[in-house]
Write a structure and sequence with these properties.
The complex is a heterodimer of chains A (about 220) and B (about 400). Helix content of chain A is about 30%, strand content about 30%. By secondary structure, chain A is of the alpha/beta class. The chains are: A alpha/beta (about 220), B alpha+beta (about 400). The structure holds adenosine-5'-triphosphate (ATP) and magnesium ion.
Chain lengths: ~220, ~400
């Protein structure tokens, strides 16, 4: 049982007015090995984002257990789980900082030194070297997403949770970002879970899951 | 290490490659305006106060010994006083009121009798005298001259209170005929309005006081003013008492202090308004930055660090505002007379300032104690103003913030 992430019987529901509750998904089970990646597809509103937030302990669940690196983190504070980082559809960069400052910011907040070697590697592989001193506001969507990836990886997480990273990008730049994401995660041995509407991207991951009517189904199932 | 919080706070106010946001500059200018006006107004008030204090010393002497009854053997007292340590000069005086008449016009001036030989030891008396024709007579201010139609060399009639006393006893004491020896001007309005200076002997005669005086003015080494007074009061008989010039004018000086405190209080509202602007600006920024703040919290920033992030912003703003405010204040004070001349040149005739307000040059004294107070209050107010947005920032829900687009 040497898994990076293991999820057992995870159930999430939202309270509704008048005391009712809306079951979003239930009995979600899956496991992800070190260095593996997987994708989750599903209709809009099926609860994919919520599932990602639940895995990083940003969203509480009603029942079930989450194990990260063999340790149960179901009730852990999100800021204590340093091994999980996110990237989002809308990049969420700090507009007042330049590219370099954006990338190293998480190190300061996590009070860990910037790993210069890793930084150089990230800038090189994500083709950001020439952009280091530019402001995010003047960059393209693809460039911004690459910065977000570098920023997520600078603290050396074991698991990257990517919520529709190409959602705002056109076909070509989406392709480029995905290729880079696959490549850099492979280089660093980082696992990732990709939420996407793009089936061809999903197919490239080790495991493909579908979230349908509240249950997480394996590709085969 | 808070280094990165400072840096991030600075970047929020001055994004890289930009010279600060609109919010940054309006905040700085707001604080600067408050600090500048406070510094300028308080400095000028200090200047006027200092002028007033100098004047009070000039017209009173540094210490006055007053007695309930007229003091006999004043020359003997003078010798004894001169022997006391740190006393640099002693001069006796006689004071009271009288009725002065000139061709049917009557006034009731205050009368001050000075001792010609010694008065220079305690007061800058010669500075007060505008003209002196050398006769043995009184010095009058211009207003009295105008009211009675007197000029140097004329005479007026002096009726002392003794004359009233004598009427009861059905005796007639004739008024003294006093010549005007010249004009004086102390620049202290109250004295220049209705006081007449007499040679002391003239008043002693009028009041029937022979060799008695009402008190002494003393010149004392400033460093020992208080202790000299204390020593004197321990030593003087119980019906005599020594007062410093500031004890004599306690009420007046208290009013000046109150005036200054009130100005400070009222003008501080400018800083308060500027601080409220900062508060609302920061609040807007907190709301706009929910996504970022959520990310920071997710990355492991503590809530306290988020508080600092916003408090530091207001500290930076108020410090820059203070620097700008102090710079402009010192410039305004440096060119104050040019500014006053420029402004009055538009509205007022020449000399109007002197005639109405008794000054030509605006006095100003830069008092570091006041400045420190202004700075401390500005910093504290702006810091307090940032607490609400900072607290609001810590209430950010990570999940809500991250779900925002
Ligand atoms: N705090 C909440 N309270 C109630 N309902 C919520 C809450 N958060 C999310 N939901 C609901 O949960 C459902 C799933 O939301 P989620 O964002 O996970 O969908 P998604 O699968 O990511 O959709 P999309 O592909 O459009 O991003 C939605 O119907 C949403 O309304
Ligand atoms: Mg979603």
């Amino acid at each position: 049982m040497n898994k990076l992430l293991e999820v057992r019987n995870l159930t999430k529901s939202f309270a509704q007015p008048l005391g009712a509750s809306h079951m979003l998904w239930q009995n979600v089970n899956f496991a992800l090995g070190y260095g593996e990646n997987m994708s989750i597809c599903g209709e809009s509103g099926s609860g994919k984002s919520t599932l990602l937030f639940a895995l990083g302990r940003l969203e509480d669940v009603q029942s079930g257990k989450i194990f990260f690196e063999g340790k149960e983190v179901t009730d852990e504070k999100s800021s204590n789980i340093k091994g999980i980082r996110y990237i989002f559809q809308h990049y969420q960069l700090v507009n007042e900082l330049d590219v370099y400052e954006n990338i190293v910011l998480p190190c300061y907040m996590q009070r860990c030194p910037v790993d210069a070697k890793l930084l150089k590697l990230l800038l090189e592989t994500l083709k950001l070297e020439s952009l280091q001193h530019r402001m995010p506001a003047y960059l393209s969507g693809g460039e911004r997403q690459r910065i977000a990836i570098a920023r997520a990886l600078i603290t050396q997480p074991k698991l990257l949770l990517a919520d529709e990273p190409t959602g705002s990008l056109d076909e070509d730049s989406g392709r480029q970002v995905m290729d880079l994401l696959f490549y850099v995660c492979k280089t660093l041995g980082t696992s990732f879970i990709l939420v996407t509407h793009n089936i061809s991207f999903a197919k490239e991951t080790n495991h493909v899951f579908y979230l349908k009517q509240g249950t997480l189904l394996n590709e085969e199932g | 290490m808070h280094f990165w919080i400072w840096k991030l706070a600075l970047r929020y106010l001055f994004p890289k490659h930009r010279r600060g946001t609109f919010f940054t500059w309006t905040s700085i200018v707001g604080i600067a305006a408050g600090v500048m006006i406070l510094c300028v107004v308080l400095s000028i008030m200090n200047g006027f106060d200092e002028n007033i204090e100098t004047k009070l010393v000039q017209i009173n002497g540094k210490v006055k010994i007053l007695s309930q009854k007229p003091i006999r053997n004043y020359t003997e007292w003078m010798q004894r006083l001169r022997l006391q340590a740190h006393i640099l000069g002693v001069s006796p005086f006689v004071q009271g009121v009288a009725l002065v008449q000139k061709e049917g016009r009557v006034i009731f001036p205050k009368c001050f009798g000075f001792d010609k030989k010694t008065v220079g030891e305690v007061l800058p008396f010669s500075k007060f005298i505008l003209s002196d024709n050398g006769t043995y007579g009184a010095f009058i201010p211009k207003t009295v001259a105008r009211e009675l139609g007197l000029a140097t060399g004329d005479t007026f009639d002096l009726y002392s209170p003794l004359a009233l006393e004598s009427i009861k006893n059905e005796v007639m004491i004739l008024p003294q005929e006093i010549p005007v020896a010249g004009y004086f001007k102390t620049d202290w309005a109250e004295i220049d309005r209705d006081t007449i200076f007499f040679p002391m002997e003239l008043l002693q005669e009028a009041y029937g006081m022979e060799d008695m005086v009402h008190g002494f003015s003393l010149n004392v080494d400033d460093r020992y003013l208080r202790s000299v007074c204390e020593d004197l009061n321990a030593w003087l008989p119980s019906n005599m008492h020594a007062y410093t010039w500031y004890e004599l004018n306690e009420d007046f000086l208290h009013v000046l202090k109150m005036e200054k405190a009130m100005s400070f209080f009222v003008l501080l509202f400018i800083v308060l308004v500027a601080a409220i602007t900062i508060s609302s600006g920061l609040m807007t920024s907190v709301v706009r930055k929910q996504r970022e703040i959520s990310l920071f919290l997710h990355w492991g920033a503590s809530r306290l660090q988020i508080v600092r992030l916003f408090c530091f912003q207001s500290l930076i703003l108020s410090m820059l505002g203070i620097v700008l405010g102090l710079t402009t204040a010192s410039m305004v004070l440096h060119f104050r007379n040019a500014i006053v001349q420029f402004l009055t040149g538009w509205f007022l005739p020449k000399d109007a300032l002197w005639n109405f307000y008794n000054f030509e040059q605006l006095p100003a004294v830069w008092c570091w104690k006041d400045i420190a107070l202004i700075l401390a209050f500005s910093l504290i107010i702006t810091l307090l103003a940032s607490l609400l947005p900072a607290w609001k920032a810590t209430r950010t829900s990570i999940i809500k913030g991250l779900r925002r687009e």
